[in-house]
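[audit] Reproducing an earlier prediction to check determinism. Same input, same settings, fresh worker. If the tokens differ from the archived copy the diff job will pick it up downstream; this log only records the rerun itself.
[audit] input (63 residues):
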Amino acid sequence: MTHPTAIRAAAQIVLIEAARAYVADIGPLDLSNAGTLTGHLMAAETLLMQIVAAFDDPTGAAA
């Protein structure tokens, strides 16, 4: 199912703002805490995958 352009653009903006807010909220990191670093990397990867999916061509046509 393809979405109208305005809805896709809104979804893209929401995801980009979510990623921006996540990064802004991280604050100073304890570089010796591997668990926290791993958690941040996994969360960032998830956000980036969602952004890529939001920008994929809904028709499935190759670029």
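[audit] rerun output stored. Observation attached for the diff report: The chain has a mean pLDDT of 86.
[audit] end
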